[in-house]
Amino acid sequence: MELTKEMLQNLRQDYRTAQLNESDASKNPIKQFEKWFSDALEAQLYEPNVMTLATADKNGKPNARIVLLKGFDHNGFNFYTNYLSQKGKELKKNPYACLVFFWPELERQVRIEGKVEKLDKENSEQYFHSRPQGSQIGAIASPQSQVIANREILESKVEELTAMYEDKTIPKPAHWGGYVVKPTAIEFWQGRSSRLHDRLKYELIDGKWQLSRLAP
Length: 216
Hints:
The protein has 216 residues and is of the alpha+beta class. The chain has helices at residues 5-9, 29-42, 86-93, 121-128, 133-141, 151-164, and strands at 50-56, 62-68, 71-73, 76-82, 96-103, 108-118, 176-190, 198-205, 208-214. Strands 1, 2, 3, 4, 5, 6, 7, 8 and 9 form a 9-stranded antiparallel sheet that branches.
């Protein structure tokens, strides 16, 4: 099939699944997120904890990638990574980020803006040792975001580490751990017909969440 400009221009869906009204929304955006995330779990969506993490370097140049949500509460939204990766270096210089969840089957998305802080060592240790052994070894073997000559270098390192830590506890590397995105704004988007989508945005003002409706 030949891809044409017209084909791309005509790719669209008309959203009719649900609506989002102020009267139905929680006063607390974390509670509202919990409700929507539970809906995604109940609908058995494929990896509902997949989220886009957008960062920027010290000059404001943006970057984005997919990561996994691994916990959330009133303090914020957690994910784990290599602190020496590109995202880790960017967050060290510019500790702000945006998260985006998109659940197309429910015609919903959530955008989260906030300041980013490292999780404490105990939290990172606990999560690291809850991962499968292969994932633990992979975190040590891979110099994330760095240029490597070939895949064989990684595979050889994995073999070496697997033999080294057979029947042993694998230590969490110092350069690996968690971050928490502490939200200052959270927007809930529900697709509606004719692109007249529902958008409710919570903003943290003087320590209290304020709710507003945005035009689509």
